[in-house]
Specification:
single chain, 346 residues, 12 helices, 11 strands, globular
């Protein structure tokens, strides 16, 4: 199965003198972050295939619109976001009630009720009386594909690849190091990232550092400690198209448990990802020798905590550097070749 499924043809003809009727709408709620959207791509593609004559609208943060449309599973985005992963209001929904509303946001009544307030003809949600039980220990991709399966909708958890970006990469072939994370509990210490940067540079690899819009100080600190030249530091947060191209054409991505790690998997780019409070069994890459998830077993922590998780701190710089160099040495360190045979990153 390709990473961007072909859409079913839709009827656009009209009877004499009358415009074609608007197609029925499926509204999907998943108003979360970059990694959440990428983990939800298999479910979204299952919905796309199950409703070929419908317009698929995704309620999500507007900053992720370009990515949502690039998946090939979404026709439009309804801007919706709320602080701290809360359920946003959907009262600005335009037009008639959606034919189908699907809750991929969570398992509580809040997200269900936000969709129910729009009076859809059919509502699919964990919190509905006919909804399936919440699988608390399932991987995020499998959880939502299983949810759809309970409603008779087929979705493949490995259908997660993205098409190649049309934007050129600002640093093709570089090792991309991303030291930031949305929460402190998932942020490996900057001085350790710097030590790995020094090791990679000593081995002859070109390194590029990047971070989110609010992580410039962290990125510059890692660059200074790691001996990274200014032309290998990308601050300020890149536009999504440029960031996607940077990841797609990188030789390897080193990061914590962030959206960038999911983007590397979606583009088939080698990756080393550092996990702490959350096991990679719940949020990590699919089984693939090109994606290494480093994690120390232990009781789960707080993925939104302020200080680095104890399990994350048990990951040493030597272990991380060795993992990066091992992957980079598999085929000379260039960008991983992509083709139908790796469409599911397996």
């Amino acid at each position: 199965m390709s990473g961007s499924p072909r859409r079913s043809p839709r009827t656009r003809t009209a009877t004499a003198g009358r415009p074609a009727p608007h197609p029925p709408t499926v509204l999907v709620l998943r108003a979360l972050g970059l990694g959440d959207l990428l983990a939800g791509v298999p479910a979204l593609r299952g919905i796309r295939r199950a409703f070929p004559g419908h317009r698929i609208v995704l309620a999500q943060p507007p900053g992720l619109t370009e990515l949502a449309l690039a998946t090939g599973a979404v026709d439009a985005v309804l801007p919706a976001e709320a602080p701290r992963r809360a359920v946003p209001s959907l009262t600005h929904w335009p037009g008639p009630p959606p034919q189908v509303a699907i809750d991929l946001h969570g398992n509580g009544p809040e997200s269900r009720d936000a969709l129910a307030a729009l009076h859809p003809r059919r509502l699919l949600a964990h919190a509905c009386p006919d909804g399936p039980p919440w699988p608390s220990h399932a991987h995020e991709r499998e959880r939502w594909c299983g949810f759809l399966h309970a409603y008779g909708i087929r979705a493949d958890p490995l259908d997660l690849r993205l098409p190649r970006p049309g934007t050129p990469s600002p640093a093709p072939g570089a090792v991309l190091v991303h030291p930031g994370a949305a929460a402190g509990s998932r942020r490996w210490p900057g001085e350790r990232f710097a030590a790995v940067v020094r090791c990679l540079r000593a081995a002859g690899h070109r390194v590029v550092l990047t971070g989110g819009p609010d992580e410039d100080a962290l990125v510059r600190s890692v660059a200074e400690r790691g001996g990274q030249p200014a032309d290998g530091v990308l601050t300020g947060g890149l536009p999504f198209g440029e960031l996607s191209a940077l990841v797609a054409e990188a030789s390897l991505v080193l990061s914590g448990d962030t959206g960038l790690a999911h983007l590397a998997v979606a583009h088939g780019t080698r990756s080393v990802t550092l996990y702490g409070p959350v096991s990679p069994r719940l949020w990590g890459p699919p089984p693939d020798p090109y994606h290494l998830a480093l994690w120390k077993p232990g009781p789960p922590g707080d993925p939104h905590g302020r200080t680095p998780d104890a399990r994350l701190l048990r990951i040493g710089t030597g272990e991380v550097a060795a993992a990066c160099l091992t992957l980079l040495g598999q085929t000379g360190g260039g960008p991983r070749r992509r083709g139908p045979e790796v469409a599911h990153a397996r």
